[in-house]
Amino acid sequence: MIHTISIPPDSQMAPLMRAYRSALSAKRRQMTLGVAVVIFAFLLASLGAEVDPKMFWDHLGNFTSYFYRISRLDSGAAVWTDPAEWYWGLGRWLRLLGETLMMAYLGTATGFVGGFVLCFLCSRNLVTRLWVRVLVRRLMEFSRTVPDIVFALIFVIAFGLGPLPGVVAIAIHTVGALGKLFSEVVESIDMKPVEGIAASGGTWVEQIRFGVLPQVLSNFASYGLLRFEVNVRGATVLGFVGAGGIGEELLIAIRKFYYSDVSAILVLVVVCVMLIDLVSERVRHLLLAMDRSR
């Protein structure tokens, strides 16, 4: 079947084309203005941060040459030509990497529990007392605003060197981050099941248990897995301040200019994070698929 399209006469098309060109010009002006604002903001931020383009360009070679140095053994050969020499400390590094993973796991699990409890207390659709919501939200903001490395420095002074300061620092930061995400999920639920439980005489805890949790658990698990990935990387950096794990060994290698050790440890960390990312991605997709099938 052939469809024909009638073309209006020029007298009718001319106003339409002028309106089209006018709208197109307005869009282009908006785009140009937006780009100009972004460039101006970038330049203003560069001035405020005292960025020196000439210094950046002059020292750019040091950045690239460092990557060349960490790809060479002490003999000058490429690191991949002698894996045994490159990973001479594999046993020790794997043990420290396992310690980093345990730090991230314990910190994430503890922070997950804290964020799980607090998210219900700061949700507008579950708590009517304004002062409770404000107090809990300010507490979570403080927890996630202060960098975890600052918390780690404080707890290293309090508890000494080792994994404990790192675990506590990660847990506090995770409480604020996950509590924020969890509360947003809770505030977007369907309130009809909760209202039905309340109308039948259910307590506030029962409303959460039977009306809220079935709707949010898959999202909670997904966010928890994502946060674990972030905390593995964070736990590596916390080792720089004496909080244990592979980060401390990496800092020693950097300070002593053991270039091949730096690259070996970095490769271990990158591979570990990639594996965690792949596994957690599969688990998240399974959870989301289960949630949609309900």
Protein architecture, described:
By secondary structure, the chain is mostly helical. It has two domains: 15-47; 90-293, MetI-like fold. It has helices spanning 10-48, 53-58, 60-69, 83-86, 90-121, 130-145, 148-159, 163-187, 192-199, 204-238, 246-255, 259-293. It is extended and about 80 Å long.
Q: What Rg do the Cα atoms give?
A: 27 Å
Percent of residues in helices comes to over 70%
CATH architecture of the largest domain: Orthogonal Bundle
List segments where confidence is low: pLDDT < 50 over at least 5 consecutive residues.
Answer: none
Provide a count of the helices: 12
Q: Indicate the CATH class of the largest domain.
A: Mainly Alpha
Instruction: For the record, give the distance between the C-alpha atoms at the N and C termini, rounded to a whole number.
Output: 44 Å
Strand content is under 5%
